[in-house]
Amino acid sequence: MTTNYVNTFILVSPDSRATAGTPPSKPGTVAYLQYQLLQESPYGLTSDEILFEVHALRNGIADRDREEARRIFFARPQACLRASPLVKTHGWGLHHDEHGRVALVGVETDAYRALAARSDLKVIPGMRSGRR
Fold this sequence. Notes:
It is built from five helices and four strands. A hairpin with a 5-residue loop joins β2 and β3 (102-106). The two termini are 29 Å apart. The mean pLDDT is 96. By secondary structure, it is α+β, with helices and mostly antiparallel strands. The chain has one domain. Strands 3-2-1-4 form a four-stranded mixed sheet. Helix content is 33%, strand content 14%.
């Protein structure tokens, strides 16, 4: 199973109240860790790498144990970044390039509007927070 997208732009969730991309403020949360990884390395990691790294950090998985932990982690279905709190709450779109590597794009930016309008990208909404 993979959560990776290629040539895709994930829009901010339709029910998000965010009007700008804002950094998560609570250290150790999924949103905070995903944000840190993406800020430190735009287009440096795939969705699978981001999701597993956050899992490993939050669960204190040692480097020597990561290969087996990764196998176990992806043996079960995982939610993709469409369900990320960055998309649902914090106002970030996620651009996946031709290699599946991801970068943050604030909803308020010209870059966000340009990516959302591109016909050569698959443009999909983030998951809603509620059922409405």
